[in-house]
Amino acid sequence: MSEQVYPSMSVANPHPPLLDGIQRIATIIAFIGLAMTVISVFGLLQNGSYLWLSLFCMAFGVGLYSWRQYHDTHPGIKNDGIWFGNLTSRGFWAWMAGILITFFYVCLYWYPQWLGFSAEGTNTGVVGFFDPLSIALKGKPASQWFVYGTLYTLAILCFGFKFILKYRHNRYQVIRTLSVIFFQLCIAFLLPELLERMNQPSMDLKNMWPLNYYFFFDWNLDKLLNGGNLGIFMLVWGIALIVLISPLLTYFYGKRWYCSWVCGCGGLAETAGDPFRHLSDKSLKAWKIERWLIHGVLVFAVVMTAVVLYTYFTGNSQVLFINSYSVREWYGFLIGATFSGVIGVGFYPLMGSRVWCRFGCPMAAILGLQQRFFSRFRITTNGGQCISCGNCSTYCEMGIDVRSYAQKGQNIVRASCVGCGICAAVCPRGVLRLENGSADINMRTEALKAVHIKAS
Amino acid sequence: MDIVILGNGISGITAARHIRKLSDHRITVISKETDYFFSRTALMYMYMGHMRFEDTQPYEKGFWAKNRIKLIRGEVSMIDFGQKKLQFAENQHIHDTAFDPAPTEISYDRLVLALGSAPNKFGWPGQDLNGVQGLYSFQDLQSMEAHSKNLDRAVIVGGGLIGIEMAEMFHSRHIPVTLLVREQQYWNMVLPKEESAMVGEQIINAGIDLRLNTELKEIIDDGQGNACAVLTNTDERIDCHFVGLTAGVHPNVGWLKDLGLDIDRGILTNEYLQTNIPDVWAVGDCAQLRKPPAGRRAIEAVWYVGRMMGETAAYSICGQEIAYDPGIWFNSAKFMDMEYQVYGTVLAKPPENQQSIFWQSDDREKSIRLVFDAQSRAVIGFNLMGVRLRHEVCEKWIGAGTPLKDVVEQLALASFDPEFTRHFHSQVVDIYNQRFGDHAIANKRRRFNQVFSFLRN
Description:
heterodimer, A: mainly alpha, two-stranded antiparallel ribbon, 4 strands, globular, B: alpha/beta, FAD/NAD(P)-binding domain, Enolase-like, domain 1, 25% strand
């Protein structure tokens, strides 16, 4: 195998002293912030002010680090040494990070008591540590989900700032990142908490079925139906999103309007996950697995929801051989928790930032089918300028072999493309451009200029 | 029929792919460089840590068996054109292969020579010392890598595309670089004065020691056969343990002399890329056209040319004689962070009848040059720094002899920059109006549908 023959191209010193003094200090500050949150698990620092200090340290540390990393660099692509870094090339630290994040998710989903969550009594541990913020926002003590939501939003904010600095020469990237930050901070995080404070039904208004797989569960429907005008509005909005708004937007702009501009999973992948985007597998085999898995999950989600709704309307919990209560529990366990959470984020440093979006998300599957068959969106290629270098494919977080299309001069129309635009950004020859257009909508996938000679 | 292709670069592999599309002939590709085709233009990205070696290979390993293209790794030492046989070198020292050892000889019915280039050396004293090399092959990259460890400074000789690439590579590893350029400005044989100055500023701003008007005089031996310094034409001594020779390339044909093949600088071919020997074609960097198309050079060592030649030869080999027609000239490059695209005729020192209008952004990071015929005012060329334009639109404008005014007004139609990029087309229009006292108005709309209908009509 030639991979074994060329284990690494770098025998020189690929680790020049990149971290200057200020970056070291910034790293220490960020870690102190993180450490405060971590040790609160053991019942330490349970005093309101430490929480603010911890959050401030994390944000300030990451922000200062990012600013220092990019402030005096020339605007442009910043991928030097990506494959030499231990954390970014599946080295020891990547595995450690993967294991730690996975462990955190396991606690979050199945052992919240380890984090100090207490449904009846007073919270302790890290959940108790976050009580002051939760009380300030919604007037109630925190849950493990509040801790998670806060850290998630903080990550998108801080690493979004880093991403914007990194890609500041590219307005598409800057505007897109401001959009995911806005939707996470305001729509996914602040708005539901404030609604809860006002005793209104709360909902992440952009979180659509089937990504939001419990939208049609009995308790959610009851909550919305009993939630007054706002609850009814949310129910109508949720259904309109699925049947009207999202197909329309996908028709005009491709699935990117959701996956890389609005979605929270996408938001984390595009910001905190950016240093790992090149780790996605580009092989044809991975593409095959992807198609089976993601559409399998979509079928699972649709069947599960249908059965749950049948039970809701008839009261009968048994449909053929399927029990609607156990099927939704299994879905929650396998897809909702294990796939989207544990694997989806825990495997960032090993399989790239879009494992969930690429292999599992049923929402992405629906939008992908729309994008593939009824959308104006495609990536066009610039005549014969491709040099087959492979930057586009390497940095595609969805594992699309962009080069295989670009070198033929063929449009890229793929169900999985989230339209992040990084392929076009990293292309050293300006070969790729994201476009929307209806004129050639039925022939987007044709190999328009695959050959130099037009054979008669 | 047995078709043997010598060389697995872009031209050889493109020939193989198209022969497969057009026929069922047995195809064998021989390379001494690497087992599989990789993108030579991506050598720099491996060194800089943007990609791994396998990421630079455009086709998966299964592709070759699926398309029935046999790959052999080995060095051919001799070609017997009379017997139609290739002989492999004895004692081959190829360690990094996953393939079976090459046979001693192989016969062909039709042969494609896709031999590539070799870096130029101009007889500098010390040019063969350890630590002195060009950057063309995968082995060159490995050697560069080996010399990079604890390197104090690299001196690069030559103000062309490979020179700046090499400078950027070392720079990415924080290794000090001195770039010696013989001319007054960087790459000013090709780039007009203003663009050449912009690239020079990029180089200097990146912290690279750019020495214009400076030539290499000698490379100094440290007494053990290693380079330890260079002397310039001003007798300045620059200590360094690596010297990059990037003063152009020449066809890699030295070993083919006196075998009956017509060779000038490269292997001479007709418009079907056939050599003087029956059933032998030459493509890519090693080919020299006996009658190059108007305005083109006989040897063009460019990725795109290699690709077009590979395809042309495939048709000829498969019995469809289609003359080589590279169309309107285009090329592209990236100088540090500055992208460069060129379409059509853009000369560094244009003749009287070629004029241009030139727009440059205030920060000198972007520019657009439109070259036109002084009499007819038809646009004949586009030269772009930091701006992307759509190849086919520019090609169509040039091909149709579109008047400058139309191009200036419709420039947005060719825009290929990412969405939300600020455009400067109205400033180009202003420059045009000032120059000619005209009243052109910029059409800012560039919907894809308009582009599409422009291209289809």
